[in-house]
Design goal:
The structure holds two protein chains of two kinds.
Chain A: E1 4-5, E2 10-14, E3 19-25, E4 32-38, E5 45-51, E6 56-59, E7 62-67, E8 72-77, E9 86-93, E10 99-101, E11 105-110
Parallel strand pairs in A: 2-11
Antiparallel strand pairs in A: 1-3, 3-8, 4-5, 4-9, 6-7, 7-8, 9-10, 9-11
Chain B: E1 5-7, E2 10-13, E3 19-24, E4 31-37, E5 44-50, E6 53-57, E7 65-68, E8 75-79, E9 88-95, E10 106-107, E11 111-115
Parallel strand pairs in B: 2-11
Antiparallel strand pairs in B: 1-3, 3-8, 4-5, 4-9, 5-6, 7-8, 9-10, 9-11
Classes of the chains: A mainly beta, B mainly beta.
């Protein structure tokens, strides 16, 4: 049973437009939410995070939104750049502090 | 470079052989994690250490897998009698602990294992 779902395996966006990546979860015990970016043959790189007491966190072009009632997390990238092309994973943390990952969304930003 | 370091980066081994991966975490981090990632999936948690103590093991970690962190610094992950299903990227990560719920976990570049 998947606790964390990224239902879109891929997303293509034109350069300069907004990219929206989504993540749904089932377990209400998660209290910290992170996004990682991964290039092929490399480990995941931390991007941005949000705690359960907030509903928005912004860092430059990246904004993470949390809707706890809907158990939904999203990452907005604006404006999107070709260098943003990568696989994006949402990762959720509970009391045990290890991360539970979604299956990832391949973002392609077209020049 | 003060990030998480893993070696070897790539390992090809014959089925039935033993392999060992090493991880050097970020120096001040007292938590160390091992994850496994296969194609098309997100990383899956295997085990973690707080200092030298192994605090949790996933059911994914069969008896053929053993992890150690003898002095609370670097860690090794050994896979005995490898099987083709063990082919994956093995990721090490580290973090600080504390009252803050969000101590970020930082990953190394991973060690690719191919069992032939």
């Amino acid at each position: 049973d998947q606790q964390v779902k990224q239902n879109s395996p891929s997303l293509s966006v034109q350069e300069g437009r907004i990219s929206i990546l989504n993540c749904d979860y089932t377990n209400s015990m998660f209290d910290y939410f992170l996004w990682y970016k991964k290039y092929p043959a490399e480990g995941p790189t931390f991007l941005i995070s949000i705690s359960s007491i907030k509903d928005k966190n912004e860092d430059g072009r990246f904004t993470v939104f949390l809707n706890k009632s809907a158990k939904h997390l999203s990452l907005h990238i604006v404006p999107s750049q070709p260098g943003d092309s990568a696989v994006y994973f949402c990762a959720l943390s509970g009391s045990a502090r290890q991360l539970t990952f979604g299956s990832g969304t391949q973002l392609t930003v077209l020049p | 470079d003060t990030g998480v370091s893993q070696n070897p980066r790539h390992k090809i081994t014959k089925r039935g052989q033993n392999v060992t991966f090493r991880c050097d975490p970020i120096s001040e981090h007292n938590r160390l994690y091992w994850y496994r990632q296969t194609l098309g999936q997100g990383p899956e948690f295997l085990t973690y250490f707080q200092n030298e103590a192994q605090l949790e093991k996933s059911r994914l970690l069969s008896d053929r897998f053993s992890a150690e962190r003898p002095k609370g610094s670097f860690s090794t992950l050994e896979i005995q009698r490898t099987e083709q299903g063990d082919s994956a990227m093995y990721l090490c990560a580290s973090s600080l602990t504390g009252g803050h719920a969000g101590n970020t976990i930082y990953f190394g570049e991973g060690s690719w294992l191919t069992v032939v």
